[in-house]
Amino acid sequence: MVHRVQAVVVRSKNAPVSLETILVPDPGPGEALVDILTCGVCHTDLHYKQGAINDDYPFLLGHEATGVVAAVGDGVTNVVPGDRVILNWRAVCGQCRACRRGEAQYCFNTFNATQKMTLEDGTELSPALGIGAFAEKTLVAAGQCTKVDEDVDPAAVGLLGCGVMAGIGAAINTGSVGLGDSVAVIGCGGVGIAAIVGAKLAGATTIIAVDIDQRKVDLAVSLGATHGVNSRDEEPVEAIRALTEGNGANVVIDAVGRPETFSQAFYARDLAGTVVLVGVPSPDMTIELPLLDVFGRGGAVKSSWYGDCLPSRDFPMLVSHYKQGNLDLDAFVSERIGLGDIEEAFERMHQGLVLRSVVEISDVEITAGLS
């Protein structure tokens, strides 16, 4: 059976997105068909639209999603129809060298659905991060589905599917922030503020938010940072040192991903401290540091890919914290929109006016399959 559903597609570089009918097949072996409930509007979707990921147009956008499993293919055992799930873009293989040594969060052979979703004329779509969730239904590998409780707001927990998880994981998993640590986060967009929230959740006592936009600094302080630094007005390395007894922070997280912010993070950490790069640089960016400083300052310099997340481990744990009131995921939902509002949401995101716009798709909008 083929399902005709509405979805958001971009056909060429920097073209406006369009709401179109696409064809979604029933799941084959190892696959799951998912009715989408919510999907966050993430910078990665904008990068696809702008051609910053690759040029495999047309793209089916959207990836930060929750849904309900509608059907599963042969051999699927981790979910059944009716399960509420968060989608992820790291379905681990269980067989690569990382998985074999018990570090599945670094899986080197993650995979997606084998079958292709298409436009009505048969043109194959490239789903964003192997998901494509700005749609009423999507087809994914079953391993991209993590079952979660149904008694939570899907718009909030769905953000764990990408940006919020990347930030929280950068603090907890990659940075190993612990009780009493000092943490500085450079860049207070959605990922950076999630890193601040993660540092607070891990028990850090000094949490410094750094940004060039005072609105973002103020928001970061309202969500857990103990100090704010506007780096237009203050030199950030000196400001961070001044707030940490002249030493620098135990962990500094660069949530921007530019050479200048990475250099600031490197020099704003304490001796033997940790630098975490979670902001995504562009391919043309380079960094130059004195090798003696790299040696002499000790510690660790790490990159954080998806917050070193293992969805089956991290999603249920963080949803539990959310339910207990320890993790305010609701604060990340700036607005709730429809499938036809995504172009405007990209502009608000670009202007820094929102943490997350979240597309909501009600049950009545989910269309029936047509053969």
TrEMBL record:
Give a yes or no for keyword Metal-binding in this entry: yes
Q: Which UniProt keywords apply?
A: Metal-binding, NAD, Oxidoreductase, Zinc
InterPro entries listed in its UniProt record: ADH-like_C, ADH-like_N, ADH_Zn_CS, ER, GroES-like_sf, MycoS_dep_FDH, NAD(P)-bd_dom_sf
Q: Name one GO molecular function term.
A: S-(hydroxymethyl)glutathione dehydrogenase [NAD(P)+] activity
Q: Which CDD domains match?
A: Zn_ADH_class_III
The biological processes this protein is annotated with in GO are: formaldehyde catabolic process
Domain Enoyl reductase (ER), first and last residues per copy = 17-355
A family per Pfam? ADH_N
List required co-factors: Zn(2+)
Q: Which GO terms describe its cellular component?
A: cytosol
Keyword Metal-binding assigned to the entry: answer is yes
Family to which the UniProt record says this protein belongs:
Belongs to the zinc-containing alcohol dehydrogenase family.
Q: What is this protein called?
A: S-(Hydroxymethyl)mycothiol dehydrogenase
